[in-house]
Amino acid sequence: MYVQNDVLWNKKPWVAGPSLQNELRCDVCVIGLGASGLTALTYLSEHGMNAIGVDAGMVGAGAAGSNGGFILAGIAAFHHDAVDVLGHARATRLYKRTLDEIQRLASEEPSFEKRGSLRIAKDDDEYLDCLRQRATMQADGLSVELYEGTEGRGLLVPTDGVFQPLERVRRMAMALRGSGVSLYERSAVTHIEPQLVVANGNRIVCRHTIVAVDGKLEYILPQLTGILKTTRLQMLATAPDCTLHYPHPVYYNYGYDYWQQRQDGSIAIGGARDKYEATEWGNATYPTLDVQSAIEFRLRETVGCTAPILHRWGASVAYRLDDVRPFVGQVLPSVWACGGYSGTGNLVGTLCARDIATALITGTQHSITGWHD
User: Which of 85, 155, 70 is nearest to 343 (CA)?
Assistant: First the structure.
């Protein structure tokens, strides 16, 4: 068992903000200082609402700063699978909203690299599934190409890319601090009710609450038990390997395995959850020997990387159990939540959080109806 998380992206020291030590009042309390929570805080503050943020850890300490750094259009389900559940119109509308979010990210985030992404088939059956995905995407006017190269055969989605996730959330937090928004790190929430949050034993009296934590969301809001379920995703990263050239991030084995080569030549790779699904459910975040060994096998045998491994880590995310879409909505009077991104929170999470913030600013739920209708 590996018990030490050593995240690839955590290359610079972070000076933590204050922890909550007194009672506060505000318009909106946002719980979670990852990308989705920070997006909500940014949008609320830009529209004149008095909002504060709290987190049990530090900025980006959860999956928002510990993921694979992939930016992929669409929701977690491949587009043809989403169409099977939602129909062409709804699935395509959500897909196009994520394309708009990629454009927004590209204009705001210096670390974003638009490289496209590959879905590479593990076997002939998956390749047939790739062909079905391509046909559905083309029918709905979405960019996709057949691909065959050294990685294998499958699909190239040219709209996608990669970025440095922890840099992103820290940059967002610094901008919020600079504009006077209060962010309280190391402030664990122990109680939520309408118009009241308790963190570090201190009361936050608020008109609205947004819970934007994804992983462990059903622990914070037990009302979501049975709708969301937390699981662990694990990764590792290597020293630079100049013998390899992977210009595109790769989704392999139906997305259960994934890797990208960074500009310095290092490989960041995650996956193997399909082999150990039963043991990965739960709120643990430390990397484990079984899963890490399976990821390392994929690294050596499929990716072909021989470089030494320098980093191993895990993070909690929530999977949606009853729908292919994430959860976005009101859980209690004046208490809102978003999560259940099923491993795709980098893009979808910011969309969901901004939609909730818009609902609070405008006083209407119209902005989130696309996640439900």
Answer: 70
pLDDT tens for each residue of 163-179: 999 999 999 999 999 99
CA 269 to CA 372: how far, in whole Å?
Answer: 33
Name beta bridge partners: 324.
none
Distance CA 108, CA 105 (A): 5
- Domain 116-161+228-320 class in CATH: alpha beta
Q: In this predicted structure, what is the pLDDT of residue 5?
A: 87
Whole-angstrom distance, CA of residue 331 vs CA of residue 252: 35
**What's the CA gap between 198 and 204, in Å, rounded?**
6
CB–CB of 271/295 below 8 Å?
Answer: yes
Closest by Cα among 235, 299, 218 to 70: 235
CA–CA dist 366, 266 (Å, integer): 44
State the DSSP string of 108-139.
Answer: H-TT-B---EEEE-SSHHHHHHHHHHHHHHHH
The domains of the chain are located at: 116-161+228-320
Question: Locate tokens 């955590």: which residue?
Answer: 10
Whether the per-residue pLDDT at 209 is higher than 70: the answer is yes
Using pLDDT thresholds of 50, 70 and 90, give the confidence band for residue 103.
Answer: very high
Q: How far is CA 342 from CA 125, 230, 231, 331, in A?
A: 23, 9, 9, 19
Under 8 Å between Cβ of 93 and 369: no
pLDDT of amino acid 199 = 97
β-pair type (228-238, 51-54): unpaired
